[in-house]
């Protein structure tokens, strides 16, 4: 099965979601389980080309999968899965996303927390929304922006929020990521200005 980057991001969210309930679940086992139960991932979906009826059908499918994963994970049914480590090849970028979020969770969550307004915090976010944010923020902070344009990472997160959450959460996620994007851009502009000033000083000397 050949997966596009949109499907890989969706898988990363779902696998991270599962592992919150069952931290011992391997990436390979989670990957195989989702592929067995989410046939839609095998299709390349262009959300802009979907009719309203098709989008509703896809959305309903996604919500049912999320509910199913939560139920199975809390019931520890994953313990009954066979060891599939040698039978499944996990896409490289999927591994990068899932393991990258784990390795950099503190910095990622801190960045999210810094841009949540009011009385909200990372701990109060609905788990699926938090996973969507974590994947997107990882891409913003730790991947090459030439390879993964930042606006693409943000737009993909918003599309996932449409599937796995409600409109209020989508706007919430959009707001947080837009603020993070603005901060990163401002920091880059400041660094570029500093480099320009240093170069000018060297020329004068």
From TrEMBL:
Keywords: RNA-binding, Transcription, Transcription antitermination, Transcription regulation. One of its GO terms (biological process) is transcription antitermination. Involved in transcription antitermination. Required for transcription of ribosomal RNA (rRNA) genes. Binds specifically to the boxA antiterminator sequence of the ribosomal RNA (rrn) operons. GO terms for molecular function: RNA binding. It comes from Aerococcus viridans. This is Transcription antitermination protein NusB. Gene3D superfamilies: NusB-like (1.10.940.10). SUPFAM superfamilies: NusB-like (SSF48013). Signal peptide: none annotated. The gene is nusB. It holds the Pfam family NusB. Residues 89-181 form the NusB/RsmB/TIM44 domain.
């Amino acid at each position: 099965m050949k997966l596009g980057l949109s499907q890989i991001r969706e898988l990363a969210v779902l696998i991270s979601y599962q592992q919150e309930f069952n931290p011992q679940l391997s990436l390979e086992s989670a990957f195989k389980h989702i592929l067995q139960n989410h046939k839609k991932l095998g299709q390349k979906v262009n959300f802009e080309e979907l009719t309203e009826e098709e989008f509703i059908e896809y959305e309903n499918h996604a919500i049912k999968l999320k509910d199913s994963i939560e139920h199975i994970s809390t019931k520890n049914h994953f313990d009954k899965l066979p060891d599939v480590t040698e039978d499944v090849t996990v896409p490289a970028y999927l591994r990068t996303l899932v393991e990258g979020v784990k390795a950099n969770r503190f910095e990622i969550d801190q960045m999210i927390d810094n841009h949540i307004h009011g009385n909200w915090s990372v701990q109060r976010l609905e788990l699926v929304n938090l996973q969507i944010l974590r994947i997107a923020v990882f891409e913003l902070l730790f991947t090459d922006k030439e390879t993964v344009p930042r606006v693409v990472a943000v737009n993909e997160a918003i599309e996932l929020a449409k599937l796995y959450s409600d409109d209020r959460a989508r706007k919430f996620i959009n707001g947080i990521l837009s603020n993070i994007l603005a901060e990163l851009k401002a920091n880059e502009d400041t660094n570029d200005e500093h480099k320009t000033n240093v170069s000018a000083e060297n020329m004068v000397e």
